[in-house]
Write a structure and sequence with these properties.
Chain lengths: 588, 442
């Protein structure tokens, strides 16, 4: 028996970064807004208590803040000829759970994608010809960097990002990223005080004529009052960002940036531990009536709403669309369909340099305190003479040097015993690591759909992920491993080791929680799920916001773009959709 | 609010002629002024439950004499004050005697409200009459015998309270006098901040010098440089009252509620007046004790606890961070003679006020599970005696007592109660004797 509740103007599924930003904007517009969050309420003082926030066993090893497979698992396989099996433990990526979502336990790298990425198909075609990326389903996103600029700006000033601009209104800025597109103004805060390892990395990079710059960071370099009047503190460099909530109000998140204002609004309501099962559609199929959800006691509710916003983790947005019949399921055999296509990930490799006589003190750290080299990212360099497209940011951001998880020892060291202990003691403080975060480009056989066999606790099919690293991306990554070796040699040291990407993506070892695509934005309603305003092409009052909208993934962390897209969608609803409710904002 | 709006709309509809229109406007003005009086008097703080209907009755007030529940003051005729007349209300505010002659307990700060002007009380009445009536029966008097005898307040008033209007000091500016009126009258700051006598009345010789209440120590708010707000500028004090936070301090405990419901809603002129008045109060300066030597074992132990638990937010030098983490260096709250609030903050944690000017509501987590009594005592002793602070050390026994829920019921109210019973009995005997004498005289 489903209880029918009073209508709301807007219902938001998931209260993480995108949900909280949009809820706040729509509440400012005067709408009656409800957010439904599957996980628990979480706030800084009680849930990220300074006394236990840095419990490595609880949070990093046992993954206390993350989605657990018992609640929702995903099945995986590398190609369509295989039978997918459910992940018994989230490993390769760790979706968030609860209020704040993955924005609670992120590191804080806050990037802007470039114009050459938003216009990737047009750009690469113009520069190299379409044959250069044959086999990759690269699509333009339908927006330009200039159009995205105000939304990036809004997100950065909401967060208090610490960084150095490389290009203000077309003027190159010394010390910043020389490859970025023009921004309207400087970052809200200056870069964080640099630690030793990134300083050495930057010196080595400069000897190779590369252009290192401080990584734009959501770990705050100083006290800050954000665009909503919410105060944040200076990061203490405790080194517990990734997998942890911040106890010091110094890592940007829904909790530290939005909720203090949002939760007080009378026209906003949050219901936690409420899992949305389905978006219910009108018989016409092109409008949603609301959502059906189940609370923690198992009671089912129908929540009518005029606008439905899917703001869950990207993968969950895609699954909810599939479960609700929003858009047409993508079929790799025919290359038709809109939902589930262009699933992308991240193509990474890493380098360790074992230095001699350097005391790097890696425990003094923050999730995005470091230096980045973008000379080989995206299309910052000429790909005319290489056999791939795309690239990677090279990041020296030492963090996570925690007692259980961080024991850097050179290859060949025994895995236990006195030799291992000796090498641990010798290398813990003097090992310098940096990584290449590589782009991930869509290919036909990488996609998401519903698993034919496995179901969740509500009897709904699990999401099935079919993913393999495309050959293009492997070639790109090998190129990046070569560049990394050059930097490692410039750093000197006793020895170094660089990983090289291999085929057969493995869901077990942690790689990256940058799952993108599946409900991509675009200009073609037959090849994208949402239009440039994140409005479903098929159901006019449904907006799908998050990394699910990425038409491909760049060699960058996604959160900056996710936040910007939330502001873009909110702006579109406030200034376009409400004036023509129920209408498509882009003619199909 | 919606009731107010409805009333105003109704007034606008009803009035037809120009004269009536003017009267309606006057009445609307009066209601608006009355609403502001309710803000000044912070009626909400006591008479509204968290999340409950406005003015429909509050949470029990734990007094040393027992529990009193602030009643329903909505115009509901059965359970509120719907049967009161304006004269009833005025008499209650002035004398503590309510509708039907029922005597109020001074937990209702009528000794302060009695200073209010006739107009302010009348405006407040006009406003309260427009509040949404809510049926909510409140059993206000939950005191144990003999304190539950309301007539006992006759004696209390005789001993402690002389109704009189506010007398401005002609030697002071109008702003100062406005501040004095607000602090002593409607805002009743002394209810929390003035120490109490054995009978629970304000000890006027110690006005606003800080007092213990419900597990908190409401600090000294005179201009005393050691324990009061003497080190705060006029603007800093106004900022604190408006937003609940300034460069020195973050409102906590009951003051957080006072800021949210009252001071943050006061107009700037009144906040400035309050600041002018409070800063002018210069009672005999509190003695500045010799700081506990940094070399003492408890200071060294406290420093270690501080570095591991507190420094990340409050800073290694106790400087805090603007709007977020209060500074501990130079914070008068840290230097109060009574460390009750500090112990409370460490054991239970606290959350800042939410105001339009400072929406963050930063919170201090509870550390009770993590620090033992000696560690809490040592770290507070360290904080109270570092970076220029000097105050009496905190002892582990004090922490233990507060961890266990405070002192429990003190003895002296019972002594006072027993004395009162004796008086009543004597009065009764006297009456009986007089009656017996009468036939003899006849």
């Amino acid at each position: 028996m489903t209880r029918i509740l009073p209508r709301k103007d807007a219902v938001i599924v998931g209260l993480g970064w995108t949900g909280s930003i949009i809820a706040n904007e729509l509440a400012d517009e005067g709408l009656d807004v409800l957010a439904l969050e599957r996980g628990p309420w979480r706030d800084t003082a009680t849930d990220f208590n300074i006394g236990y926030a840095q419990d490595e066993l609880r949070y990093a090893i046992r993954k206390d803040l993350f989605l657990q497979p018992a609640l929702e698992a995903i099945t995986m396989r590398n190609n369509p000829s295989q039978t997918a099996l459910p992940m018994r433990d989230y490993g390769s990526f760790l979706p968030g759970h609860g209020v704040g979502g993955a924005g609670v336990h992120w590191n804080g790298h806050t990037w802007r994608f470039w114009d050459s990425e938003f216009r990737i198909n047009s750009h690469l075609t113009e520069r190299y010809g379409a044959a250069k990326f044959a086999g990759l389903d690269l699509q333009d996103w339908g927006v330009t960097a200039a159009e995205m600029e105000p939304y990036y700006d809004a997100f950065e000033y909401l967060c208090g990002i610490s960084g150095k601009a490389g290009n203000i209104r077309g003027q190159k800025q010394p010390g910043g990223n020389p490859f970025e597109d023009p921004r309207a103004r400087e970052y809200p805060l200056p870069p964080m005080q640099m630690t030793y390892a990134p300083t050495l990395f930057a010196e080595a990079a400069r000897t190779l004529n590369l252009s290192p710059f401080p990584t734009p960071s959501a770990n705050l370099s100083g006290a800050y009052v954000n665009s909503l009047g919410v105060a944040m503190g200076q990061c203490t460099m405790c080194g517990f960002c990734e997998r942890f909530g911040c106890a010091n109000y110094s890592k940007s998140s829904a909790q530290t940036c939005v909720l203090p204002v949002l939760m007080r609004k009378r026209n906003f309501e949050l219901r936690t531990e409420c899992e949305v099962l389905k978006v219910e559609l009108h018989r016409s199929g092109n409008m949603a009536r609301g959502v059906t959800y189940v609370d923690s006691s198992g009671e089912e509710f129908f929540q009518p709403a005029d606008i439905v916003l899917l703001c869950a983790y990207g993968l969950q947005n895609v699954r909810l669309m599939m479960l609700s019949g929003i858009g047409k399921q993508y079929d790799p055999n025919t290359n038709e369909g809109t939902v589930g296509r262009n699933y992308c990930y991240q193509t990474n490799c890493g380098t360790q340099v074992f230095l001699e006589g350097k005391e790097l003190n890696p425990f003094i750290a923050a999730g995005s305190l470091g230096q980045t080299v973008d000379d080989f990212n995206g299309d910052a360099f000429d790909h005319g003479n290489v056999n791939f497209v795309g690239g990677a940011g090279i990041n020296c951001i030492p963090t996570n040097a925690r007692p259980i998880g961080y024991r850097p020892v050179p290859p060949g060291t025994p895995r236990w015993g006195s030799a291992w202990k000796r090498e641990t003691a010798r290398n813990y403080r003097s090992t310098l690591s940096f990584g290449c975060q590589g782009s991930s480009y869509p290919q036909r056989s990488n996609y998401l759909d519903l698993d034919p066999t496995y179901k969740d606790r509500h009897g709904r099919p699990l999401l099935r992920m079919t993913f393999e690293f495309p050959d293009n991306d492997i070639r790109m990554s090998h190129f990046m491993s070569d560049r990394s070796e050059e930097i490692a040699r410039a750093l000197g040291g006793r020895q170094h080791t660089t990983s090289r990407a291999t085929k057969a993506w493995n869901s077990v070892p942690y790689q990256s929680t940058h799952n993108t695509g599946g409900a991509i934005m675009g200009t073609d309603p037959t090849r994208s799920a949402v239009n440039r305003y994140l409005q479903s092409w098929d159901v006019n009052n449904v907006f799908v916001v998050g990394a699910s909208a990425f038409a491909h993934n760049a060699g960058k962390n996604p959160t900056g773009t996710v936040g910007a897209l939330a502001f873009l969608a909110a702006d579109a609803i406030r200034n376009r959709y409400l004036k023509a409710a129920g209408q498509p904002l882009v003619a199909a | 609010m919606s009731a107010l709006r409805n009333t105003l709309a109704a007034l606008a509809l009803v009035v037809g002629t120009a004269t009536a229109h003017a009267e309606g406007a006057d009445q609307a003005d009066r209601i608006m002024r009355g609403q502001y009086q309710a803000v000044l008097g912070d009626c909400m703080a006591c008479h509204t439950r968290p999340g409950g209907a406005p003015f429909a009755g509050g949470l029990p007030l734990e007094t040393p004499f027992g529990a009193l529940v602030p009643p329903n003051i909505t115009p509901d005729p059965e359970t509120g004050i719907g049967q009161w007349s304006e004269a009833d209300f005025t008499r209650m505010m002035r004398t503590g005697i309510g509708h039907g002659g029922r005597r109020l307990y001074p937990a209702m700060p009528y000794p302060a409200y009695s200073l209010m002007t006739e107009r302010d009380i009348a405006d407040l009445w006009a406003y309260l009459a427009t509040v949404e009536p809510v049926a909510n029966r409140v059993v206000a008097n939950q005191l144990p015998f003999p304190f539950n005898i309301r007539l006992s307040m006759l004696f209390w008033n005789l001993l402690n309270f002389t109704p009189q209007p506010f007398r401005p000091d002609p030697a002071q500016s109008a702003e100062w006098n406005r501040g004095a009126y607000l602090v002593q009258g409607p805002a009743h700051c002394g209810s929390c901040h003035t120490p109490k006598t054995m009978l629970g009345a304000d000890d006027t010789s110690q006005a606003l010098r800080g007092a213990s209440l419900q597990g908190w120590f409401a600090p000294d708010i005179t201009g005393d440089p050691q324990t009061g707000i003497g080190g705060w500028s006029q603007e800093e004090l106004v900022t604190y009252l408006r937003t609940g936070v300034n460069a020195h301090s973050v409102a906590s405990g009951p003051m957080r509620e006072a800021v949210e419901n009252s001071t943050s809603r006061m107009n700037d002129a009144d906040l400035r007046a309050i600041a002018v008045y409070l800063r002018s109060l210069r009672p005999a300066a509190s003695p500045v004790p010799q700081p506990v030597a940094a070399s003492e074992p408890r200071m060294r132990a406290g420093a270690a606890v501080y570095a591991a638990n507190c420094a990340a937010c409050h800073g290694a030098e106790g400087t805090g961070a603007r709007q977020l983490f209060p500074a501990l260096a130079g914070n008068p709250l840290v230097r109060q003679a009574n460390a009750e609030t500090l112990v409370h903050l460490v054991l239970a944690g606290s959350q800042g006020a939410h105001t339009p000017g400072a929406p963050t509501t930063p919170a201090m987590p509870s550390l009770a599970w993590r620090l033992n009594d000696a560690q809490v005592a040592d770290v507070l002793t360290y904080v109270r005696n570092s970076w220029g602070n000097a105050a009496a050390p905190v002892l582990p026994e004090q922490v233990a007592k507060q961890r266990g829920g405070g002192d429990g019921m003190p003895l002296w109210p019972w002594i006072a109660g027993a004395a009162m019973v004796v008086c009543l009995v004597l009065l009764g005997l006297l009456a009986v004797c007089r009656r017996r004498r009468r036939p003899l005289a006849a």
